[in-house]
Amino acid sequence: MPFDVGDLRTPGRAGPEQLRRNRRAVALWLFGVAGMILVMIALGGATRLSGSGLSIMEWAPFRGALPPLTEAEWQRLYALYRQIPQYALINEGFGLAGFKHIFWLEYLHRLWGRLLGVVFLVPFLWLWWRGAIERRLRPRLLVIFGLGAAQGAVGWFMVASGFLPDATAVSPYRLVIHLALALLLYAAILWTGLEVLRPAPTPAGLGPLRRAVIGCLVLIALTILAGGFVAGLKAGLTYNTFPLMDGRLVPAGYAELHPFLRNLTENIPAVQFDHRLLGTLTAAVVLTTVAWGAGFARAPARGALLALGAAVAAQYALGVATLLAVVPVGLATAHQTMAVLVLTAALVALHMIGPGRRV
User: Fold this and answer.
1) Could you say which of 180, 199, 218 is where a domain stops?
2) Does residue 354 surpass a pLDDT of 70?
3) Residues 272, 235: contact at Cβ < 8 Å?
4) Which of 55, 66, 198, 278 could form a disulfide with 223 if both were Cys (CB 3.0 to 4.6 A apart)?
5) Are 185 and 239 members of one domain?
């Protein structure tokens, strides 16, 4: 039966068929928002890799929705950019044409973020007004919207770190915070959509396979965040061999910073080694879990597990290729995007393996 948004009714007064229609409408909206966040993360990666992220020196949530429309406005923005260290140390003399080249990607990234807010808020209010969103779901969605709004401020907090004296890029710490919040929003929206589309009763406990997939999810998240520090330090531009690093398993200078914990986030040899180690451990654990669970899981869960295994294998190969090619923009952007797809596959597998809490 085709879906008709005009048939949405209050869940408490709807029959089973109408409730199914309501749930489908809400789930499709949430999956659409999750897809836009995936594109946003990919755009963010391309923006960082191309050096475009510092090209817009103002945070103007409303006025900034329009691009420069006059030559005078272009010149004003270019003059602002010429004041920051990135211009003096990297792009000095590249002219207005060069500025426009890096400007448009950052503008698209910010515009997409604004569109994301509209695509979330407008259907949310309409579906709420129509009674399609169940009462217990509304507080969660309000929190998600608040976090999404905060992400804009976090993004500017990250960008502002690139305007500091002698800075030519943003702070790795702020970059990882920005990435972590984006992944949290993505996971929350995707998981909510899955719960709405495929509700299940509260489980009595967690089975061994479900616990194993949760462990895989933790490893995937840690590997992605470690990759954020690799990106922030541009650590992928060194040690471009695999599996050894400059002929060694553990690179020289791994623990040269003091105290030791600084090495985990500030030392290029340690940051790249840790990302490699986490990536290899994650791939091994995920593929072992997939091989074990696919032997007895039922058809939907088995398919989700196999998709997770394929995604992890592809991501590992893509990571090695990106490193060996010395981080070209296209491959590196694909690697960052694929990381989100791996997270997606793990969340779907977790949802399919056992019952989740009913929304």
Assistant:
1) 199
2) no
3) yes
4) 278
5) no
Quick one: which of 12, 33, 9, 13 has its CA closest to 22?
A: 9
Kindly state whether residues 190 and 75 are assigned to the same domain. yes
Taking the CB of residue 33, how many other CB atoms lie within 10 A of it?
24
How many residues comprise the chain?
A: 359
**How far is 229 from 240, CA to CA, in rounded Å?**
17
Query: In Å, how far are 211, 252, 292, 293, 294 from 302, measured between CA atoms?
Result: 16, 43, 10, 7, 5
- Closest to 10 measured CA to CA, from 2, 142, 18: 18
Q: Tens digit of pLDDT for each residue in 281-305?
A: 999 999 999 999 998 888 889 999 9
Residue-number span of the structural domain to which 240 is assigned: 203-359
CA distances from 208 to 97, 155, 278 (A): 58, 39, 22
How do residues 5-22 score in pLDDT, each as one tens digit?
445 555 445 577 888 899
How far is residue 276's CA from residue 314's CA, in Å, rounded to a whole number?
A: 15
pLDDT tens string 205-251: 558 999 999 999 999 999 999 999 999 999 999 999 999 999 999 99
Residues 181 and 212 in one domain: no
Give domain status of residue 2, yes or no: no
Q: Please report the DSSP string for 61-89 in residue order.
A: TTGGGSPP-SHHHHHHHHHHHTTSHHIII
Token pair 């993505």 in the structure block, residue:
186
Q: State the pLDDT at residue 3.
A: 46
Number of domains in the chain: 2
Q: Taken in order 318, 321, 325, 326, is the CA torsion positive or negative?
A: positive
Q: What is the pLDDT of residue 18?
A: 83
Q: Are residues 37 and 182 in the same domain?
A: yes
What is d(CA 286, CA 312) in angstroms, rounded to the nearest whole number? 7
How far apart, in whole angstroms, are the C-alpha atoms of residue 74 and residue 61?
Answer: 18
State whether 226 and 343 are in the same domain: yes
Cα–Cα distance measured from residue 199 to residue 252, given in angstroms and rounded to the nearest whole number? 52
Report d(CA 58, CA 71) in Å as an integer. Answer: 18
Strand partners, 248: 245
